[in-house]
Amino acid sequence: MNRSLLIAETVWEEIASAKSVTVDHLSILHFLFGKSFEKAAKIVDERGVRRISGHPSGRSIFQVMGESRRKEDYLCFPKHFCSCYSFFYDVVNRGEHQCCKHQLAARLAASTGRCIDKVVSDEELALLLSQL
Question: Regarding beta strands 73-77 and 49-55, do their DSSP bridges make them parallel or antiparallel, or are they unpaired?
Fold first, then answer.
């Protein structure tokens, strides 16, 4: 893991433990992620992050609202994957970014307790995941 991601991980842990964000946290995350973080914060402010958890397993995935005209929702695992075009193009293919705005939004919402929680059966969660 590179230094930027280690610093970001430390900030996410601090936010999660305090369940609040300081100006310093915002400054660090903005420095590390730039406009992607600004867009992620906007998504969180608009209550565009849903954590879908399977019952009884407790496994979960995030559904994050897009901001394009199509208003698509994207499924993501905040540390590892997003179904959006930017993740595949900018993160995986070109390696220009560490993560996409949807992953950042999911991390921010989860860390601050600002995501909408939805519980479904494990079967429904499996069906949702099979569509990736």
Answer: unpaired
pLDDT tens-digit profile of 86-111? 999 888 888 788 899 999 999 999 99
3 phi and psi angles, rounded to 5 deg: -60, -40
CB burial string 5-31: b at 16+ within 10 A, e below: eeebeebbebbeeeeebeeebbebbee
Peptide bond into 78 cis (omega under 30): no
Cα 36 → chain centroid: 11
Q: Which of 34, 37, 35, 6 is nearest to 21 (CA)?
A: 37
